[in-house]
Amino acid sequence: MKIPEFLKKGDTVAIVCPASYIKGNIENAIQVLTNWGLKVHIGSTVSAQFNQFAGTDTERAVDLQHALDNPEMKAIFAARGGYGSVRIIDSLNLERFKKNPKWLIGFSDITVLHSHFHNVVEVATIHGQMPKSFEDSSKEALNTLHNALFGESVDIKYKQTDYPNRNGSAQGRLIGGNLAILHSILASPSDGSYDGKILFIEDVGEPHYNIDRMLWTLKRAGKLSNLAGLIVGGFTSLKDSDPPFGQRIEEIIMDKVQEYSYPVCFSFPAGHISDNRAIILGLEASLTVKNEESSLEYL
After folding, report:
1. Could you give the dihedral angle defined by the CA atoms of residues 46, 280, 97 and 99, in that order, rounded to the nearest 10 degrees?
2. How confident is the model over 193-250, as pLDDT tens digits?
3. From the CA atom positions of the chain, what is the Rg in Å?
4. Exposure pattern of 201-216 as b/e (b: 16+ CB <10 Å)?
5. Could you read off the pLDDT of 187-199 as tens digits, one per residue?
6. Rounded Cα gap, residues 39 and 225, in angstroms
7. Whole-model pTM above 0.90?
């Protein structure tokens, strides 16, 4: 797996919109990045709108392609997620990017790009806050994002008492992202093997039954049987049915992995939450779960 060069003060980063259009401004994010000593290039799609998207498919693909190919731009932020990355992923030419990789930062719908870049060109990426979410971000989330970009420590240790973890330790490449997106790209060129990997999942706004269905799909596709470990991030703003589904999210997940022995940790501080700490997808990592305490360290 290729690791892009870490940033240094004076570098230029790009902000583009590969999916849904931006409501409101991103001045707060621009100020934060500027305070980090970075120059900010604003892509044409940041101010574009075509129905729910940040411009047409062609416009979004061209804007992202420009950022991928331009040697002056050392990292690329997706301004927001929403929906739309899958509509442009197959039109991207990644030959220059493969030879001169740079950091891609985002989450949610950007899971399409994360997974595609890992499996097609083998480049590590950052699952972290996007400019749209900077303003409501925790200090820890922005600190870990800064550290990930500038090559400082992004190891995460945390404690939670919401639901019992499954103890154990694991080593493997860290993969994953948004569960609904992982489900949507199964058996596509963007998909890859989960075997021996540490899988991170998170989601937002889904009904309990749909999470259950998506996890069954991953299980039946053989994605969950040979994991090294499972990290469960934020599952927020979930919807229940009437009558209720009858299980909390942790129970839904544990039902699918109960016969396996790898460690499972819940309430990891990443996802559609203000404390969305940066994690570097594609790198080899070590996961340790001991009762209420969990840690993720990069090897």
Report:
1. 160
2. 999 999 999 999 999 999 999 999 999 999 999 999 999 999 999 999 889 999 999 9
3. 18
4. bbbbebebbbbbebbe
5. 999 999 999 999 9
6. 44
7. yes
